[in-house]
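Internal ticket - ligand job 261, adenosine-5'-triphosphate:
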Amino acid sequence: MPGADAHDPLLEVRGVAVRFGGVTALRDLSFDVRPGEICGLIGPNGAGKTTLFNCITRIYEPAEGSIRFAGRDLLAVPAHRIAGLGIARTFQNLALFGSMTVLDNVLTGAAAQPGTGIVPGLLAWPGATRRTAALRARAWELVEQLELLDVALLPAAGLPFGTRKRVELARALMAEPSLLLLDEPAGGLTHAEVDELGGLLVALRDRFGFAALLVEHHMGLVMGISDRVVAMDFGRRIAAGSPDEVRRDPAVVAAYLGRAA
Ligand SMILES: Nc1ncnc2c1ncn2[C@@H]1O[C@H](COP(=O)(O)OP(=O)(O)OP(=O)(O)O)[C@@H](O)[C@H]1O
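stdout (structure tokens):
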């Protein structure tokens, strides 16, 4: 990327504001995500975390501010080109193709890559080109990394929730993202599955080198695996720093206690 270097932030959010009629969902929000780091994004319900994801993926148009990704003005990029730039996302509510196998679901994640062509061509087997063979090799690698080998050829629909969440993660990684947006990956998981997920995310980051923006209510997970945490409330950034700094920040404590009261 012209002008970019390893010390530059990968994602730069500056002064972003989003309004829905009378509701201000984000106001003057600024923070960075550096290459390869896991950045936790916390805040009570309605703080604006999902709205921010929707701005980064170009679903919502900010009223003010700028978002740069790898030195590029993201707000000048149409939504359908975001994945091709190296930004992938998982969703709060799973969005898998239920009747397709786990492997084929993972393969669909490659569809956004330049030169991949359309999904049906990619899934045609036999007759794979060298490119599709390489993609299948990557899909199998991800299936293995995400401990999905036993279910690789089963339809996604019948699998336990925690397993389907891992399929969604594998699919997002298929696009070789440099930034992974994780929207509440621990939602609906058991304690044991959350612990496992934390270890898995760190191992995957170490293996593939992506940065992750982790929106999560499960504090144990966020504080356990994030390199840095940004805390939001009412659309604003109220704290940022190491997990320990943010956990102890009076504004963060007040935001959570205030909502719980
Ligand atoms: N499409 C929309 N139209 C109107 N208001 C919206 C829309 N999307 C979000 N909002 C409002 O913007 C604010 C921020 O919502 P958002 O979903 O981003 O919060 P959040 O931090 O992701 O919450 P949660 O943790 O519950 O997922 C809320 O007041 C919400 O009601």
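Auto-summary: Residues 191-208 form the longest helix (18 residues). The pocket of adenosine-5'-triphosphate is lined by residues 20, 23, 25, 43, 45-51 (CB under 6 Å).
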